[in-house]
Write a structure and sequence with these properties.
Layout lengths: L7 H19 L5 H17 L2 H25 L3 H17 L3 H17 L14 H4 L11 H8 L5 E4 L6 E6 L2 E7 L9 E8 L2 E6 L3
Parallel strand pairs: 3-5
Antiparallel strand pairs: 1-2, 1-4, 2-3, 4-5
Helix pairs in contact: 1-2, 1-5, 2-3, 3-4, 4-5
Length: 210
Amino acid sequence: MGILEYDWISFLITFLGTLFLIGELLVNMRGGFGVVGLGFIIVYFYSFLSPGMFVMMLFIYIIGLLLIIIDGKVLNDGTLATIGTVLMLAAVGFSSPNWVAGLYGVIGVLLGGASSFIFLKVFKRREMWTKIALIDQLSSEAGYNTMNEHYKSLIGKKGTALTDMRPVGTVRVDGKEYSAVTNGQWIQQGTSIFVESVDGTKILIRKLEE
């Protein structure tokens, strides 16, 4: 009995494949993680599918990955990243020889993607996720006391959404423009907003109820 006949192997292969592929998007490894991750994913599809289906499912998986990249580089609102994740899960799930192996494969993709964030603690971060994550938070220890105090003074103030908040966008408060984020809520352009909290330079807003 070959090792690929064990259903749990689907989890291992998709976990490692997704771990390194998403890791390549998060940190700058000059393509090394991408090659390793793609190798695992190719083994997964090639092991269970005919040549024609292998090409199709691998294509769907890669399209999903590309949508995540486009979201990170262009839109920064999570929409295409969500669609891309669904495509990747569908490609893995429908390529499995049975539902148990498919479930293992889907779980492997989810856990692999989540675990890839560990690489951020070790390797140099890519810049493509800066907008959506709003990670450029300045601390008082770094000498940004004045700026931090200014941002903190915005708490409780009202303003207007200059762009659609999905959930990241631009708002105007006290005549000045700021990047802000909602707590998962989508807010239309022109809507009155309320600054709920500030963490460094991360401004959390919500829709101002009439």
